[in-house]
Amino acid sequence: MKARIKLLDVLSGRYSVLISEEDAREAKLHPDDLVKLEAGKKIVYGSVVISNMIESGEIGISRDILELHNFSEGETVNVIPAGTPESVRYIKKKMHGEKLRKVEIESIVRDIVDRKLRDIEISAFVTSLEINGLDMDEIAALTIAMAETGDMLDIDRKPIMDVHSIGGVPGNKTNILVVPIVAATGLTIPKTSSRAITSAAGTADVVEVFANVTFTLDEIKRIVEKVGACLVWGGALNLAPADDITIKSERTLSVDPTGLMLASIMSKKYAMGSQYVLIDIPTGKGVKVETIDQARALSRDFIELGKRLGQYVEVAITYGGQPIGHTVGPALEAREALSALQSGKGPGSLIEKATGLAGILLEMGGVAPAGMGKKMAKEILQSGKAWEKMREIIEAQGGNPDIKLEEIPIGDKTYTFTAPSSGYVTGIDNRAITAIARTAGAPEDKGAGVELYVKVGEKIKEGDPLFTIYAEHEARLDQAIVLARRTEPIKIEGMVLQRIGNI
Amino acid sequence: MKARIKLLDVLSGRYSVLISEEDAREAKLHPDDLVKLEAGKKIVYGSVVISNMIESGEIGISRDILELHNFSEGETVNVIPAGTPESVRYIKKKMHGEKLRKVEIESIVRDIVDRKLRDIEISAFVTSLEINGLDMDEIAALTIAMAETGDMLDIDRKPIMDVHSIGGVPGNKTNILVVPIVAATGLTIPKTSSRAITSAAGTADVVEVFANVTFTLDEIKRIVEKVGACLVWGGALNLAPADDITIKSERTLSVDPTGLMLASIMSKKYAMGSQYVLIDIPTGKGVKVETIDQARALSRDFIELGKRLGQYVEVAITYGGQPIGHTVGPALEAREALSALQSGKGPGSLIEKATGLAGILLEMGGVAPAGMGKKMAKEILQSGKAWEKMREIIEAQGGNPDIKLEEIPIGDKTYTFTAPSSGYVTGIDNRAITAIARTAGAPEDKGAGVELYVKVGEKIKEGDPLFTIYAEHEARLDQAIVLARRTEPIKIEGMVLQRIGNI
User: Fold this and answer.
1) Which of the residues A91, A131, A258, A438 would you substitute to probe the B interface, choosing the one with the greatest number of B C-beta atoms within 10 Å?
2) 3-state DSSP call for residue A449?
3) CA of B95 to nearest chain A CA: how many angstroms apart?
């Protein structure tokens, strides 16, 4: 059938196409049927919603579709019932334990990006991967297909370095130090980061406190060609868009099949043209990778996948058993990272990790002799050269390079927990710290978060401050306090952990 | 947050809740987030759609929700963000190959029915079942949970018989004969049927040609207590509603995990209070169960599951390699079934199968001695007693018991295919016949379908009529003719099956 477009101002989270009851009956369309909309060369797929808010002869299309395609109101489109996409057969092949061929993986990825596959099919794909896995041939094909169905960056500087931390450890502002240290030596490092999904602050959330992070790929090319580095939000780019779609199923099910995780990370590096990639795998209780054995297995996969992609990959297994540095939350972390860059000093966990990672990159990039990278990285940090480079990056990204730490606003609603007894800190619960910071408002409320005054192993006295919660809103502070009381994120040896009985 | 309800006249195929951009930001809600709507004792879950068609302070709820719950426009509801349902953990347990406990299965089923689980989670569940399966403990728990989360029938007559054919064979109007034969002996048989999903006519579609099939459970109780039988549409009842929801994922993926299929069928029998259940498993090329071995394995499962449910189950493995009788399509099948009941005669494939199945039920119900059931069934059919009972059923279901076959309208747009050469019929392609009937308009167009003049093994001469396509609309007839030319559903020995080259 042909129909005139009517814009519907809705964001449904999926592609919806509203059709009148009369037209649906005539065209034998049912709720949730897949249809193809065609106008000249423009093609988009959507799911049928039947509605009497739409006249016969009209078709309502949601803002989701308009935002990505160039349809306009009143335009006439062809509405064609779309059958089952071919790629569903390949998803079923994987469901039944078979190995997929390259063209089959490409077909699945293309149909995901074209929105021909929807929640049901994508969830079946993710679930099949979680159960039956992918071998390295399949992972390499998936990675390349994911990169090539999106935009790719082509920077006229070589070599291109990159660093990626597998998420999970709170307060991990490390790469905000690593990038300017590496770039200060003349190496190129176009770093894209994510926003927080389940954490309290992604690197992009932190950088956004003092610079813009949302750019087009062309703008990033200009920034990187000028200053040799960037610290931008990857989500604004059309890098490996299939990943942005499958992540919805992964998050809903809280699964993260290894093959898909590898492809997700490496497809973005591949799309950015990265040649030397350092993967940081924080390991410890309460992060994504809990044991050294898991971390080692994953390392081998990253290195092998890199070879298939023509990238040189190294992996650093780092300690992730407690937060990095003292702060968790966008503004608090921005202050801590910038302070370290400006002064060359900071919490050991942050400085050692940042210079350690940067040092490996300097050696990979050939600017430091083997074994000398960390020393050189520390010198660059302490000499102020890293801060100089960071000022260039901030300026190139539209921020104020003369920013003063005390100008960064943090939440003025605060509450400090103190030690209920003397003893040694035996553990800091990553998940609880993240949950408290998020409950206090992070990452949406930039000033919300947690500041920690102690680290595992420290000796403390009763009444010593343990941590402060910052919030922008009183109600959120109160909720975070309740959660902190319940979860007791800092364990002290000799402390009563739980009291059961009459209160 | 609190919000006033605004009705949205949409059928989205899922439960949608429209919220203004402003309210969504304030409440930290994102597209597709799950929210709980609460007003007094009324509770319903829905998925967030962000829309500027809604004012702040209002909440748009779709007709899907209003149809099942008693919310009214202008009513104030509490909108509460709902976290991840507990049952997602159990779905993941099954994903990881573990056996589920009874309470875990109950939790999944309850959350499906409450719409707390959506496409992503349900698809993950279905995929996990397809891959990892269920053992008999799990299947029994699933069956009972599915029945008990819906309505159940309590009929004051014993024993209660039931019959169910596993789908797939076209033209299977058999149970329209079985039910009145069985009921004519005084046994009770409250038969619910489905409408066509992928076939050209479900039993409910056929019966609807000459009687109503949509009733409430109370009405069915009255009908059955009066005439001892019914032939109604199960979909209008709230029997095992979880099944109606999971079927969407199964259909999209075209998978049918055995455990889920068993639970789906038997939960509805359990909810109807059936004590003696006969399962008909048509077996042959182009139907759901293609080999005798598969049919035998499935039979054992049905019988074992019946034991767990306190039901006595028998299974008949029947020949499903070609259509039953001569007709496919609602009105054509209605004519054929009623003709057989009125005259006691009809195509051998229909009469033999119907009296065979009815005979087993008569023996199960204790009204025929062992080995004498089929003979008794045939006598009941030929004596006109089955037709007398059918007249009672038709009348009780609001139809005309004096219906004349020629009064049943069939499509007046017809096209007859003739044999291109002489020879023996070597095969009739079930899937092609179904596809042709559906393309001609069945089941929506009641008069559309296919009439077959030959059966496998028959000798035919060039020019003999093979089958006629009936349609209500010229365009659909033309499409069906094209499809029939392409698929050649009737194979004749010696016929050129495919000609490749210049035409």
Assistant:
1) A131
2) strand
3) 6
CA distance B143 to B109: 10
Q: Who's near B133: CB < 8 A, 6+ residues apart?
A: B257, B258, B259
Q: How far apart are CA B184 and CA B189, in angstroms?
A: 10
CA B269 to chain centre: 13
Task: Read off the DSSP letter of residue B405.
Answer: G
CB contact under 8 A, A13 and B28: no
C-alpha A466/C-alpha A7 separation (Å) is 54
For strands A312-319 and A276-283, give the pairing.
Answer: parallel
Chain B residues 59-88 within an 8 A CB cutoff of chain A: 84, 88
Other CB atoms closer than 10 Å to residue B321's CB: what's the count? Answer: 16
Q: Rounded CA gap, A374 and A355, in Å?
A: 5
Do the Cβ atoms of A145 and A105 come closer than 8 Å? yes
Task: Give the A:B interface size as CB pairs under 8 Å.
Answer: 140
- Cα pseudo-dihedral B260, B266, B272, B276, rounded to 10: 180
* A337, A206 contact by CB (below 8 A): yes
The residue type found at B384 is: G
pLDDT tens column, A361-391: 999 999 999 999 999 999 999 999 999 999 9
pTM comes to 0.90
Nearest to A432 by CA among A353, A378, A488: A488
Residue A494's identity, in one-letter code, is G
CA distance linking residue B206 with residue B211, whole number of Å: 9
Q: What is the pLDDT of residues A211-239, one digit of tens each?
A: 999 999 999 999 999 999 999 999 889 99
Catalytic-role residue among A119, A151, A244, A256:
A256
A256 has catalytic annotation:
yes
